[in-house]
Amino acid sequence: MWCCTGLRWRPAGPALTWYAVGSEQTDGTRRTRESPLAYGRPLAFAARGARRCVGVRRAGRWTPCPGGREVPARAGRDQCPECARLDRSFSVAADTNAADPRPYRVYLAWFGPGLTKVGITAEERGPARLLEQGAVAHSWLGRGPLMAARRTEEVLRAALGVPDRIPYARKRAVRAVLPPVAERRAELAGLHARALGVPGWTETLEPLPCVVADHAEVFGLAGLPRPTGVVAELVDGGTVAGRLVAAAGPDLHLADGLVVDTRLLCGWVLTAPGETAGTSVPIAPVGPDPAAGQEQPGLF
User: For the chain, which terminus, N or C, has the lower number of CB atoms within 10 Å?
Assistant: First the structure.
């Protein structure tokens, strides 16, 4: 049996990731695989059993969840409270890994008109963090040590009046009605110029020029249908079926307007459904994110 561990963005595009249940070894490894996703192709799966904690991954090693505890089907996090606490005990997002020696980058991420945030990511990850969040466009602001990057993030967030987190419901609502590329580039360029004018932070970080990277083509957003509903949860025996037309962040967009938030797939054993299976899981109307109130700080 293969348990889903979510969506990952690779150089070739999005892919669902899996581990073989019961394959954990004493050295912390487990058998894994990936399923690359292609726009225009069918996507169908059935959930089996119950959603269970995926454990803790650190430095490429997995620590299985003791007892394989169940996780609420609508939770944004795929870990039980105990594993989540262990995971965050060595987390950059939770500021519990301040000694991380890697260089970091501060960025501006654009999700739609008026929807821009400031964030940081390890330089070695490149744009992966932006793709994971569903940023339609982004530009780097500066690079340097972790804690200097974290301080700059807070300073610029306050100075520019932008948040450090944008709910996925708001991101989904605008993807099908984006302004032209030139307009989103101009909005980012304006914020970048304002950020460079904020005093102090360039003394501890190397400022970077405004070079806007646009991800709309990577996500497949051209001609995206307006969302008609979002999968609210999976249930034992429940199925999802449709044609994949786009992906952004953790979201898969189907041709009928249904959005599948792959954060809710993590921890489920997923199998191929019957040939005539349709979607038979609870669907939430487009609006407040059903998982938003349960997202943990720093998760996405």
Answer: N
d(CA 145, CA 155): 15
Q: How far apart are CA 8 and CA 92, in angstroms?
A: 19
Helices 181-196 and 146-160 meet at what angle, rounded to 10?
110
pTM attached to this predicted model: 0.90
Query: Which two tokens mark 231?
Result: 């999968």
DSSP label at residue 203 = G
* Cβ pair 214, 242 in contact under 8 A: no
> Helix (H, G, I), strand (E, B), or coil: what is residue 52?
strand
Distance, CA of 32 to CA of 284 (rounded, Å): 31
Averaged over successive runs of 10 residues, the pLDDT of the chain (300 residues) comes to 94 94 77 95 96 84 85 93 84 62 96 96 95 98 96 96 91 94 97 97 96 98 95 96 97 97 96 85 72 33
Reading the block at residue 193, the tokens are 């110029």
Is 77 in contact with 58 (CB distance < 8 Å)? no
Q: Is the dihedral of CA 166, 168, 15, 215 positive or negative?
A: negative
Rounded Cα–Cα distance for residues 170 and 179 (Å): 15
Reported in sequence order, the residue ranges of 102-228 that DSSP labels E, i.e. its strands, are 104-112, 115-122, 137-144, 206-207, 213-214
Distance CA 161, CA 253 (A): 31
Tokens in use for 124? Answer: 């070695």
DSSP 226: P
E-strand ranges in the chain read 2-10, 13-20, 32-36, 42-48, 56-58, 61-63, 104-112, 115-122, 137-144, 206-207, 213-214, 229-231, 239-248, 251-254, 258-261, 269-271, 283-284
Closest CA to 225 of 258, 176, 179: 176
Pick from 295, 220, 282: which is nearest to 251 by CA?
220
Cβ pair 262, 6 in contact under 8 A: yes
Q: Which residue has the tokens 């989103």?
A: 184
